[in-house]
Design a protein that fits this description.
15% strand, 310 residues, alpha/beta, binds ligand TUI
Amino acid sequence: MKTAITELLGIRYPIFQGGMAWVAENSLASAVSNAGGLGIIAAGNAPADYVREQIRMTKEKTDRPFGVNIMLLSPFAAEVAQVVTEEKVAVVTTGAGNPGAYMEQWKGAGIRVIPVVASVALAKMMQRGGADAVIAEGCESGGHIGESTTMTLVPQVVDGVTVPVIAAGGIGDGRGFAATMMLGASGVQMGTRFLVAKECVIHQNYKDRVLKAKDIDTVVTARSVGHPCRQLRNQMTRKYLEMEKEGCTFEELETLTVGSLRKAVQEGDVTGGSMMSGQIAGMVKKEQTCQEMIEEIMAQAEALLGKQGV
Ligand code: TUI
């Protein structure tokens, strides 16, 4: 299927794998790129040397284009911005902030820059700053989220910019893919479905929780302190939401979440850890390779849309 995004990036299928901190490393990113999508390494809060190493390992495993996601709240964001420039990665995506300060540097290195946005205003600003495309992410997504749903955000961003728009949040299969094409998107980004990919290195306990999740099993924590974050409900989120109701400060709440994502991802701590996940977790029922997932999604989408796409 050809879209503005497959043509811009030289990839076979318009499917990005989300830049999930601690999750999206060289094994997952190379598998997605080798399957014809766009694999993405997440920089998260990691130091620049870790990101450089992951980029080099991914280059060993694939000749296809891949990306790096820079989480702009990271204390290492500026150093990571420099590393992706030096390594000349094909694509940079950004999250949780405005990447304006780095845009010129990346564009000068020939990197395609695709910021994640949660509003039309930021999408327009990113286009003015030279973004090659934008990812419009609705609040069905896991992790740090904005206020609008994918259904409402994507068509408004499509109307507000001329660059291609990739839809993210709430897409788990070919039906979601086809629906976002109808909203005017040129591709999708998916995170939650890839959590249970065979090449995804997270702890099996976390994968099992995603596989068992039902439609209403995610909750949003930290709304009261301005950092809304969607994750699977567990003992930690119950305590967190209680403390928010009691009016605890950000610093008090942080005592529950420091290192909590790493605890879930690496140690499999599914009671005290943070299992970020989108609302489509209830649709994820089987572990597959990235290639099986992508081919299944595309076959379903093509049956719905017709082979030529939109
Ligand atoms: O970034 C994400 N999802 C994430 S990041 C993350 S790690 C984290 N750690 C601590 C605190 C917060 C996050 C877990 N999940 N998605 C992309 C995304 N970006 N969603 C929403 C936004 C966003 C929000 C505000 C992008 C730009 C923005 O603009 C702020 C500004 O400065 O204008």
